[in-house]
Amino acid sequence: MELFVQQVIAGISTGSIYACVALAVVMIYVAIGHLNFAQGEMAMFSTFIAWQLITWGVPYWVAFFLTIAISFVGGVIIERVIFKPLDNAPILSHVVMFIALLTIITSAAGFIWDFSIKTFPSPFGSAPLFGSSLISAHQAGMMAVTLLLLLALFFFFRYTRVGLALRASADNPVSARLVGIRVSWMIALGWGLATAIGAVAGMLVAPVVFLEPNMMLGILVYGFAGAVLGGLSSPGGAVLGGFLVGVIENLAGTFIPVIGGELKLTIALCIIVLVLVLKPGGLFGRATIQRV
Amino acid sequence: MTKLLEVKGLHAGYGQTKVLHGIDFSIEQGSVTTLLGANGAGKTTTLRALCGMIRRSGDVLLNGEQINRKQTEDIVRVGVAHVPDGRGTFTRQTVEENLQLGAMTRGDKAAIAQDMELVFSYFPILKERRTQQAGLLSGGEQQMLAVGRALMLRPKLMLLDEPSFGLAPMITREIFEIFRELNRKEKVSMLVVEQNAQIALDLADQAYLLETGRIVFSGRADDIRDDENLRKAYLGY
Ligand SMILES: Nc1ncnc2c1ncn2[C@@H]1O[C@H](COP(=O)(O)OP(=O)(O)OP(=O)(O)O)[C@@H](O)[C@H]1O
Ligand SMILES: [Mg+2]
User: Fold this and answer.
1) Where does the ABC transporter domain start and stop, copy by copy (chain B) (predicted)?
2) Which tens digit of pLDDT belongs to each residue from A23-40?
3) Which atom of ligand 1 is nearest to the CA of B37?
4) Is the pTM of this model over 0.90?
């Protein structure tokens, strides 16, 4: 029983990483209606920027927020320069572009910062929280940041005009233009926000997994799994989904002997497939009941 | 009377297909004008061209100011509200949010809240359903919502694309009665595109008949309504 509780708590704390990535996934999904396969690599690149700033002697929190701002602008620029021209192109062109972007970013990071593994500081420290061995200060901090982020997003979407405009653009772009919303800028804004959230996720993950160009490779899959499980259009669902994926992964790895440590990633993929087959809207995705 | 909208030599189409072959018409300040024609005549295309949703050439003047080079988002900002073909509901947002979206280009919060009440006074059912997901409204309710959304702009000109489409005759009459009231009380000028010529002619001051992208008749709505030969020739009733 103690092992069980321990594994659940460990699952929740890794889950907060997935939750954070899942939030970024949901953000981009709301803005562009599909996924960005390069999202993990973009987050990794942001994290390198933060690492560089910190290495140059910039205080952690200054670097943290500066990185978020840089990532936001970078996301907007990527949309404007690369994806805007593809506006009316079929989805396959986008997928090809995502893969190109992914490869370019990974090589660029490798070229600039080389492929050696780097340590990334945690602002919360790695000491056990309140002297208990169940959860470290960094893990607790990670959860807190994820929940704060969720809260901020919730308010943004629910109570601001820009948030409403963003939702409306995704819902019905033609009508959105007819009420005067500059839809193409809303898409750019979505990219900016998703990239900024991705940067937060990257900076939180890096102290745990170490920083290197392939850092986000597996984690993005977990993030997708969390987002799909929670419902791609629901930020709250995505966070819960992320936590759930963390817990399921840990429990399965501990209690189902064949799975062990190596097959954990398979679990994420299984979750994605199962959810898409059984409940495509996810657990908390708003059931968009539509008249036809 | 002064002209609110003046259209000269408007051409438009989709890709290679030309649909409008240089049409001229105008809308007087404070009036209701109707554009009638058979399926495929180019009525919807005309409204889309006015709003810059498709490529077009020719002159479009609103209060004497050229708007034919403006983008859709900016045409909204000079006071043209389009109730599109198919109603354009934001299906995943609530009724109230749909209305707020109509006022997206305005900044005056207090006045927006007032106009929301005004819309509710014309369409009480929308008030009852204000927190409901808009995609769940019935066809007639969605049409009311579309009109309400357009009103939230406080438009100078409202473009209505087949507001009677898919509605029961009684609801259609009700909605057209509201259009009349909006025109008189709120001083909204309107361009109404309709299949249902009879009800549109009852409402309108001025009428144009469109046939395969050309205007073939223009005149006072009363004249067409009272002239059986004209009606038989162009409207088939
Ligand atoms: N998106 C489009 N792409 C290509 N052609 C189109 C498009 N929309 C309309 N057309 C063509 O343009 C012509 C005029 O269509 P339009 O929709 O303007 O007719 P309408 O007068 O509104 O007819 P209805 O009463 O059926 O709504 C038709 O021949 C139609 O096939
Ligand atoms: Mg039409």
Assistant:
1) 5-237
2) 999 888 888 877 888 999
3) 21
4) no
